[in-house]
Specification:
Distance between the termini: 27 Å
Number of strands: 17
Oligomer: single chain
Strand order of the largest sheet: 1-3-2-4-15-7-16
Radius of gyration: 22 Å
Structural class: alpha/beta
Number of helices: 18
Strand content: 15-25%
């Protein structure tokens, strides 16, 4: 990656939210004095407060170069950005996730950040994190927050289970050991208590990212550089484990397959599920909602061999149409100063990508499982689909319904493989002509 010392131009922030569709296009006519627009996808109260506070702080320090805060939303961001780019009215500074950037990057909608990235960020954020937002050798987003998938477990039930070893980040359960533990943590033939609840309303990212722990990748590059789907033995381990826990062992609750993570928490608090695989940030909801005295712990996700899982970090990008890209990068650099990056991570209950921010003592406390998450930071790598054009359509039209049907027992592994590979490659081919 080519690096250049950043020469400090500045942009800044106005904390008040403003209408989104008044962005870069209007400034092409020479209105470069207008505030840059920063669209944030923060949604948890602590995270929104942290983002707005930093925006206000930047504006106090740089009153001549304000930035205005624009509130976006994760469920609609992809389609909303498509519309904004088509209309020439995209926000200047874009908060998104790395697995949503490929089509925008290859489509010329995002600025190449390679020559703009300050040396401090280029050296502080590990190369494997920067690769998650690198397409065609160019950087299109700065990864700043990441979230390992962990097991949230009822500590009391875990202690009471005979013959169940408590895993650690250094020695996690293998997938067969996890399946055995879930059986032992189950109780009653009619599901009085399940060993695990899999909330898989959106099953694709969980399945693909955890599959890295077994050597699965699913997406591969051909000699001509085009991506294609291959579904081998290593790719089968995670989906087969989940399927068998639901349909063979009875150790996983069928009713949670269509749930989001938050939907499983009442049953978890009631002792109906001993463990729930969740993103690391769900700890905030558990702290807020758990009954008084409820004892829970954070365990690493299962892994066969070297612990590794895929992640799609949250990113900050700059629209290609933005006329003041260096000013926009100045604001990003401010947001991602180590103290500020740690502040954003704490607000979102996630991990920072920056190595300096990751050393913040608050992120290494044993309380609420912070230390477990921090210990997993080195095992987080680019999700398999990061650079694949057409991934959003493949996910929505092929993989999501296919995995949902497989996990429920409606189809078998052979049918799932056919859909993911044969139907999936037809989708990808349209984006790679």
């Amino acid at each position: 990656m080519r690096r250049r010392t950043f020469l400090g131009a500045a942009a800044s922030v106005g904390a008040a939210a403003v209408p989104l569709f008044s962005g870069c296009a209007h400034r092409r006519t020479g209105e470069d004095s207008r505030p840059l627009r920063f669209q944030s996808l923060a949604w948890q109260a602590e995270s929104v407060a942290a983002n707005k506070a930093l925006v206000a702080e930047w504006n106090r320090l740089h009153p001549r170069t304000p930035v205005q805060y624009v509130q976006g939303a994760w469920p609609t961001v992809h389609d909303q950005l498509l519309t904004a780019f088509e209309g020439g009215e995209a926000p200047d500074i874009i908060h998104d996730a790395s697995d949503d950037l490929a089509d925008f990057a290859y489509g010329g909608r995002l600025a190449d950040l390679t020559p703009l990235l300050p040396d401090r960020l280029a050296t502080d954020i590990p190369e494997h994190s920067l690769r998650t937002a690198t397409f065609g050798g160019r950087l299109y987003g700065v990864p700043f927050l990441q979230e390992p998938r962990v097991l949230i477990a009822n500590r009391e039930l875990l202690r009471a289970a005979s013959g169940v070893r408590v895993p650690t980040p250094e020695d996690p359960w293998s997938w067969p050991e996890f399946r055995a533990a879930a059986k032992k943590l189950s109780q009653g033939r009619q599901g009085a208590r399940y060993g695990v609840a899999w909330p898989l309303k959106e099953p694709v990212s969980a399945t693909l990212n955890l599959a890295l722990s077994t050597g699965g990748r699913l997406f591969h590059r051909r000699a001509d550089g085009r991506a294609e789907v291959r579904f081998g033995a290593a790719d089968e381990v995670v989906p087969r484990t989940i399927h068998d826990q639901v349909n063979v062992d009875g150790s996983a609750a069928r009713t949670t397959l269509g749930m989001g993570g938050s939907d499983t928490l009442p049953g978890f608090f009631a002792g109906r599920y001993a463990m729930v695989p969740l993103g690391f940030s769900y700890r905030q909801q558990i702290v807020q909602q758990a009954p008084k005295g409820f004892d829970w712990t954070v365990l690493p996700a299962p892994a066969d061999g070297v612990p590794v899982q895929g992640v799609s970090p949250q990113t900050l990008s700059i629209a290609a149409d933005c006329p003041r890209k260096e000013a926009a990068m100045a604001f990003i650099a401010f947001l991602l100063e180590p103290a500020n990056m740690a502040r954003l991570a704490l607000g979102d209950w996630m991990l920072p990508t920056g190595t300096t921010a990751l050393r913040d003592p608050r992120l290494r406390a044993r309380t609420y499982g912070w230390a477990t998450g921090t210990a997993l930071a080195g095992s987080l790598h680019a999700a398999p689909a990061q650079s694949v054009r057409g991934y959003p359509e493949w996910k929505d039209k092929i993989a999501t319904p296919g995995l949902q049907e497989y996990y429920s027992g409606a189809i078998g592994m052979a049918e799932l493989r056919g859909r993911l590979v044969e139907d999936g490659n037809l989708v990808l081919a349209r984006y790679q002509r």
